[in-house]
Amino acid sequence: MSHHLDTPLAAQNGSLYIDDLYVFQGDDSTVLVMDVNSDITGKHSEPGFHPEARYEFKIHLDGSANEDLTYRVSFDEPGAGGRQPLRLDALTGDEARDDAATGERVLEGTTGDATTAGDFRLWAGRIADPFYIDLSLLAVVNEAVAKGTAPDFSQWHPARAQNSFAGTKVDSIVLEISHRHPRLRPGARTGVWCATKLLTDAGGRRQINRAGHPMMWPIFWPGDTDFSDPSNTRHPSQDMAGDGATIAAQVAAVVEAAGTSGDPQGYGRTVAAELLPDVLPYVIGTPATYGFAIRNGRTMADDAPEFMLSLVTGTSVQSGLGPATAAAQRAAAFPYVVPA
Q1: For the segment 101-139, what is each residue's pLDDT rounded down to a tens digit?
Q2: Span 229-241, mean pLDDT?
Q3: Average pLDDT, the chain
Q4: CB under 8 Å to 33, separation ≥6 — which residues?
Q5: Cα separation, 217 vs 205, whole angstroms
Q6: Rounded distance, CA 223 to CA 218, Å?
Q7: Most buried of 37, 169, 267, 295, CB within 10 angstroms?
Q8: Per-residue pLDDT, 45
Q9: Angle in degrees, CA 202, 208, 210, rounded to 5
Q10: Which residues pair with 300 in a beta bridge?
């Protein structure tokens, strides 16, 4: 589950904690972006990627409960100038779900450089964070969800909204996959999530963090700063059994208190079913949008917080921000991010 404020563990090793996942159409391609290691708290690990970790993009096809494709990015220790050698491995079928599988080596490169091989292009490095939200608005919804009360927006003025993430940085992995890929051609229906996995003393891998829909952790588990919640380590196929009833009840309590639904319990269950399993849906080759009308991938311009806060409270929540807020933090061409 993604979260920019993963402390205190993120302060020790922020490179393991996912801030955002984006999935959108590129130049005759699909673009997957994973951001980690935000410096929003002022306390984070040194810029760069953990050399004992794997950063994995997981792709489900045609509504499958399990991933059919995994794209695994791994890094070595930094060399001169802090640049890190990197590798991309592709795993398909049963191997996509097997941490012990090695898959097929697709390319090798270095952070800060664009590397291309066959249907794939990869870039990784430190960037200006394109995410935007005024955290004082999130605090209003956090209180409502925690207490099961109506959100109090009386002190919230959208016209005064400020981007709390202005000037912050994250480490980003950008993977572009051509539409020539045999399984990711236009029209293919996918579900995408990402995960970080760390080597254990026993030689296996432990899933540390994962992300699908935006804003899940900040809304539903903001107090779990030691990351003891099992949501981080489980597979999305277990989400509904693990958290469906809890999320449904939290949302129902808020909308009942606010009077924004005639059937609070039914609305809560609908929201839980919308968000779980925590996998981002995307139809290959279509315009990505994460908003009120449709959830189909997610671009870096989308005001995803506005939609998520509105969904949870059952009423329109104006963030006061929009795509222009962080326009300078995204680019129209590969790697689509702005290196710091």
Answers
A1: 999 999 999 999 999 999 999 999 999 999 999 999 999
A2: 92
A3: 93
A4: 20, 21, 22, 23, 172, 173, 174, 175, 300, 336, 337
A5: 23
A6: 8
A7: 37
A8: 61
A9: 145
A10: none
